[in-house]
Amino acid sequence: QSSYVHGDQVVYGPDSDSTTMAIAAIQLMRNKGHVLESIHLPDSVDARIVYLASGVDSMANNEGLEFEDIVWDLLSGDEATLVISKSNSESYDFEEPQDVEIIDGDFFNDMTEAWRLEQEIHHVSQGAYVSTSQYLEGAPARLTLTSQKAGDRMIWPPRQLDEKGLRFSEDSHQLVAEAHVESWTKLSAAGAPSEFSLRAPILGGIQTLLVRFEQGPRGVFLVTDDVDYSPKIGDTVHFAVRRIFAQEGMMRYGLKAFPKR
After folding, report:
1. Which of 29, 92, 66 lies closest to 57, judged by CA?
2. What pLDDT, on the 0 to 100 scale, is given for residue 170?
3. What is the dihedral of CA 22, 27, 31, 35, to 10 degrees?
4. What does the pLDDT look like over 87-139, one tens digit per residue?
5. Terminal alpha carbon distance of the chain
6. In angstroms, what CA-CA distances link 67 with 51, 58, 59, 72, 122?
7. 236 has which bridge partners?
8. pLDDT higher than 80, residue 169
9. DSSP letter for each residue of 71-116
């Protein structure tokens, strides 16, 4: 359940939706020891992204699955609340949301409208265009921090060829989802890339971090939109799947950083 309230409703945060919450819920269930290999998903959840980020399949992503073989359901209501249960469950217990935050009404409405406009089919990046096929090809490694080993070093995201043109091994290794800030920058609203031009003025700019993982690789990540965070070199950050931007009618999801709590 989201921690944000607008009016009398529980609502999603500025870069979250039912897909990002579904992934977070699956990760939580696994951390508690549950085994989830497949699940029934509502139409509001992007089944392809759930599979790429978690490996949990669904009939919406894989028509070869048999309905009766799927033992988990994910249910989504009108508010920003999801329920994961066994398929044979007949009733559900809900708890009142704890530590809720009243989201600013103007901010919520402006962000909702910006995302709506960004998801229009005619909205195309004027900067570094990334096709849908390119995005989907790289998404699994970027969403799960899957890297490859080359000698005594780790490389992320994976590449096909090394600097000598030789093909890398296909063996994969997962990075620990914790890193340290080496540098950071904040792009002004006017200077943000076109992918973020609709939302940058509402957010007061776009903040990015250069981080280094314990296993060696470095990466650049946006900061989640729902944290008031002034980064410092050496800070420890964790990662969550969030909405990055939309293009040609497709939402692009990726990992964003947030400070260790």
Report:
1. 66
2. 66
3. 80
4. 887 777 767 777 889 999 999 999 999 999 989 888 777 666 778 888 888 89
5. 19
6. 17, 9, 7, 10, 36
7. 180
8. no
9. -EEEEE-SSS-EEEEETT---------SS-EEPPHHHHHHHHHHHH
Q: In a 3-state reduction of DSSP, which class is residue 21?
A: helix
Q: What angle do CA 254, 257, 259 make, to 5 degrees?
A: 160
Predicted pLDDT at 84: 92
Task: Measure the CA–CA gap between 88 and 101, rounded to whole angstroms.
Answer: 34
- And the tokens for 79? 């508010």
| Cα 39 from Cα 63, distance rounded (Å) | 13
Look up residue 15 and give its two tokens: 């870069």
Instruction: Write down the pLDDT at residue 150.
Output: 75
Highest-confidence range of 47-51, 144-148, 154-158, by mean pLDDT? 47-51
Question: Which three-class secondary structure state does DSSP give residue 13?
Answer: coil
The pTM assigned to this predicted structure is 0.91
